[in-house]
Amino acid sequence: MKIESILNKSxxxxxxxxxxxxIILSWYIWGQKEVNPAVMLKPDEMQExxxxxxxxxxxxxxxxxxxxxxxxxxxxIDEIKNELDSEKSAADFYFILQEFIAEMEDxxxxxxxxxxxxxxxxxxxxxxxGWTVLESGYGVEKGDLIVSLGGMxxxxxVKDLGGFISAENPYWKKFRANFLIxxxxxxxxxxxxxxxxxxxxxxxxxxxxxxVRIPLVKKDVADSQMTNAEDSWYSWYKRYNDSNTFGWSxxxxxxxxxxxxxxxxxxxxxxxxxxxFFKEVKRDGIGNxxxxxxxxxxxxxxxxxxFINRIQPSNINNYSNFTRNTFVLISNNTFSSANMFASVxxxxxxxxxxxxxxxNSPFAFGEVxxxxxxxxxxxxxxSTKEYILSKTYKDAIYPDYxxxxxxxxxxxxxxxxxxKVIELIKEK
Length: 428
What we know:
Number of helices: 14
Radius of gyration: 22 Å
CATH topology of the largest domain: 2-enoyl-CoA Hydratase, Chain A, domain 1
Number of strands: 17
GO molecular function: endopeptidase activity; serine-type peptidase activity
Strand order of the largest sheet: 10-11-12-13-14-17
Domain Tail specific protease: 269-362
Shape: globular
CATH superfamily of the largest domain: 2-enoyl-CoA Hydratase, Chain A, domain 1
Protein name: Tail specific protease domain-containing protein
Structural class: alpha/beta
Keywords: Membrane, Transmembrane, Transmembrane helix
InterPro entries: ClpP/crotonase-like_dom_sf, Tail-specific_protease
Number of domains: 3
Distance between the termini: 27 Å
């Protein structure tokens, strides 16, 4: 598949763009605009919001029933209309609608309820061994394995949360679970809260289990905790940064030029950074570049051009083309335009992908528009285009070398995915 055709197709559909990036960002920090999920809605208000949702989907979504039969789609609509026959809270209404939306299996279409509710201050990620604590505090230690929350086993939690997550593969569902399990209303939905605490059973690295009561905290406290912890989640090289979303460094010892891109935002500053990166790589005779997309949930697909024009034969900037080894780091958080970036690299045999499967299917929807359900004030993101990125995979972009994080790597702050790159370089 030619790069030009991939990128042209992607532009048509992956104007997923800044709009969806901002929606995704609001999912991460749960937004700043306050609404009241406890407000009670009358049946006619909910019916009006639901009809608006269905009309909007049918008018703009390319294939809303792709993963259902027409009969199932119509049956579910009737079931929901019948369920909205009595007064409900905005939170309960949200869960009814989002469960229906999740059945569409479109990761770009979903509902977001923004408010100032409390959070569970528990930072988690998936390792080879299971759901693992990323940061010590509130009685848990970095590297502890989650056994249960509120008496519910992890598998059951993930299954129940998955019913409300708009996703095309299990990797995105697991990634989103890291954040939704912190949310007060999801915790309430799963009946995990008792006296403003959640009882968490963890197992330390030696295999010893213990129970910890963790309180819910204010949103700004939890958000600050997450921001402060991010720097230790990934690469050794993050301390050399241009901004929060992109930056680079040179590792002369390992002959690596490392570039991280945490969001697909195509700006003049970004393109200048990429240009300077390749100039320095060329000047110092660096033989390998690493593009880190592990924290990138998408944005504007035009960011791909800045790299493709330099790592592929081109009549653009031909003097600075990089023709040696390219490695791309991916994770379950690699999504939307970042997923496209990884696909372009893989489908055209430009580089080697290392890490974990992406959170987005190559057979996906995109080009998101937004809206608000007027009575409940629930936010809507809705796909308007369908696209195909890869002929190789169906549910995700898979790495050429699968390298999963481990509890030990979390505890020791080792980036074993980047270590794999160094190992491969030494073998060449």
